[in-house]
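Chain A, query sequence.
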Amino acid sequence: MTPESGRAPAKCNDLLGAHMSIAGGLHMAFEHIRAAGGTALQIFTRNQRQWRIPELSAYDADLFAMAWSQWGDSPVAAHDSYLINLASPDPDLLERSRAAFAEELRRVETLNIPYLVTHPGSHLGQGVDAGIVRYAAALDQAIDQAMDRSPTSRAMILLETTAGQGTNLGSTFEELARIMELSRHADRLGVCYDTCHTFAAGYDIRTPEAYAATFDHFDRIIGLPRLRFFHLNDTKSDFASRKDRHEHIGQGAIGLEGFRLLMRDPRFVRVPKVLETPKDKDLADDVRNLTLLRRLAGGEEEHP
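Chain A, predicted structure.
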């Protein structure tokens, strides 16, 4: 596979990419995204399945910066660990989550990554309202803790839309808006819109009418300027199923038309979009999905 195999045609002017592995070092993510022809990137800055957070050395940061510069002036986001739950009613888990999130913020600042994507936590049976209040307070405390050690921190925290599985928060635009309303750091909060999650939560984009209604609703409740990043994923699950099951573009319940509408929406041309779809190490799935999205954006005939 060559870097050119997934490159966008010049006319597309897109910011399209994928979540990439950091196995072998943070800088390796840029080799992977270059191989897939991506022009946007998302990574974990460490092993997201472990609480232990290794030190980020100056050498690691310099190597990352050099690899980023060689790749080009394209956007990068980091995703925090799935272990973190800032809405937990358990005091020990909540404290551990605050400390871990503060460290995630310090790491993205060290790496000059402008966005940290995060799930809004789970209330674990305490109720949505109580969970949101707890989450907003813990989020503010984590930001304060990070700024105590890194007062110049400016990374934007992107609350990711969720499917609404179990007791997870963030499946409605109103819940995300409420978090922003309660936070003392609302100016640093934005949204990462996951197409699989929102579809599973009951926000349809499969027809022009449904697509318009969904983003009109988002604009009324949150405001489109806060939408800073997309996760482009089709879904194995039905509409409003509240199940998070990612699928390749055009091969799931959303289908090609929903992604065609999104890729041709001029409001989102400069909003980075990354895949979180299934793939093997050879990245052929990423190349195929990115090529399809670019064809949808350009109006060419497409075949999933």
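The radius of gyration is 19 Å. The chain has a mean pLDDT of 93.
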